[in-house]
Amino acid sequence: MSSRVVGLEVRNKANEAIATIEDIAFNENGIDGYILSIGGFFGIADRYVAVHSSSIALTYDRANNQWRATMDASAEQLKAAPEFKYPGNT
Which top-level group of life is the source organism from (predicted)? Predict the structure, then answer.
């Protein structure tokens, strides 16, 4: 269920929180990518970036009954990525 993925904190290999999955982008073949929220504080001044679906590893931790999202990137790399703007929002 997408409701289990949207809102997940994304961590890097150093186990640092670097983003939050804000949305999922679909195409005719399935999941095309993820929209990540970075740099904000409790939803204020968030900046969004889009990453390809293969950039995020989603795993399920049965012992803790929760999903985990990891990415091989740093917070600085995400901050340098082009900003994603939702269609109609300028």
Answer: Bacteria
Provide the domain count of the chain. Answer: 1
38 falls within a domain:
yes
Q: How confident is the model at residue 24 (pLDDT cuts 50, 70, 90)?
A: very high
Q: pTM for this structure? A: 0.84
Question: Is residue 25 included in any domain, yes or no?
Answer: yes
Determine the Cα–Cα distance for residues 20 and 36; give it in Å rounded to an integer.
5
> Which residues partner with 15 through β-bridges?
none
Interval 16-35 mean pLDDT: 92
β strands within the chain, DSSP E: 9-11, 17-27, 30-38, 47-52, 56-61, 66-71
Residue 63 domain boundaries: 2-80
Residue type for position 8: L
Residue 59 lies in a domain: yes
